[in-house]
């Protein structure tokens, strides 16, 4: 199934050498479409665990059901964004993934971009990075919003490109995961790195779901 999907979208991967072959790594990606959670793992030569909103596990339509199956089968972490306590608790589960030496991916924006621009990041990504000490690799997705635009249930043929950037150097920026100021500074550095490889216009406010 994976190989068929990769051929259909003519998946192109750049910068894969920046993703370590083993050990913990935090992949911080922009978010254009529900299909990001399908194509990003296909671009990495190791298993990737995601934190994804609960709606991704109850998708509709052919591709929505495929994403739902994919997310459930691979043991991804569902998060209920409407329940703040549950969302915070899910970060501990994500931290365990990294502490076990695995690859973990997160969308710092917290939701899909409503207009293709890059929005302000939530500081959970910085908390995970600073708490685990895992290298943070910025990721830029291209074309996924054309495969399955928001509101659509039937996928369309489109080229998909996934670009991995050099790990973000946080040591000189922040070290204390309990400091809100340092978490924000680290998050801004991560978002800047994502924006550098995605070329998206940056919006200094949170995206609305």
Average of per-residue pLDDT values: 86
Radius of gyration: 16 Å
Unreliable segments of 5+ consecutive residues: none
Quote the beta fraction.
Answer: 15-25%
Largest sheet: 7 strands, mixed
Q: How many helices does DSSP assign?
A: 7
Specify the helix fraction band: 25-40%
Could you write a compact summary of the structure shown?
With 209 residues, the protein is an alpha/beta fold. The chain contains 7 helices and 9 strands; from the N terminus they run αββαβαβαββαβαβαβ. The longest helix is centred in the last third of the chain and has 19 residues, at 180-198.
What keywords describe this structure?
single chain, alpha/beta, two-stranded parallel sheet, 7 helices, globular
Verbal overview:
The protein is of the alpha/beta class. The chain is built from 7 helices and 9 strands. The chain has helices spanning 2-9, 36-42, 61-73, 84-99, 124-132, 144-147, 180-198, and strands spanning 12-14, 25-29, 48-53, 77-79, 103-106, 118-119, 136-142, 161-164, 202-203. Strands 1-8-7-2-5-3-4 form a 7-stranded mixed β-sheet, with helices on both faces. A two-stranded parallel sheet has the order 6-9. β3, α3 and β4 form a beta-alpha-beta unit. α4 packs parallel to α5 and α5 packs across α7 (180-198). The longest helix has 19 residues, at 180-198. The chain is globular. The mean pLDDT is 86.
């Amino acid at each position: 199934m994976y190989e068929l999907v990769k051929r259909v979208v003519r998946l192109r991967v750049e910068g894969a050498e920046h993703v370590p072959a083993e050990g913990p790594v935090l992949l911080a990606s922009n978010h254009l479409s529900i299909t990001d959670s399908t194509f990003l793992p296909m671009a990495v030569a190791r298993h990737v665990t995601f934190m994804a909103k609960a709606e991704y596990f109850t998708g509709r339509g052919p591709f929505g059901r495929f994403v739902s199956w994919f997310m459930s089968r691979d043991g991804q972490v569902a998060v209920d964004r409407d329940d703040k306590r549950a969302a915070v608790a899910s970060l501990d589960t994500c931290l365990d993934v990294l502490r076990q030496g695995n690859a973990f991916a997160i969308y710092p924006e917290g939701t899909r971009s409503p207009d293709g621009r890059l929005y302000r990041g939530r500081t959970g990504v910085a908390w995970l990075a600073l708490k685990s000490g895992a290298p943070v690799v910025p990721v830029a997705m291209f074309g996924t919003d054309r495969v399955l635009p928001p509101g659509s249930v039937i996928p369309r043929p489109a080229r998909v490109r996934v670009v991995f950037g050099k790990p973000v150097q946080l040591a000189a920026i922040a070290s204390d995961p309990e400091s809100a100021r340092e978490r924000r500074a680290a998050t801004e550095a991560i978002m800047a790195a994502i924006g550098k490889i995605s070329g998206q216009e940056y919006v200094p406010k949170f995206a609305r779901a």
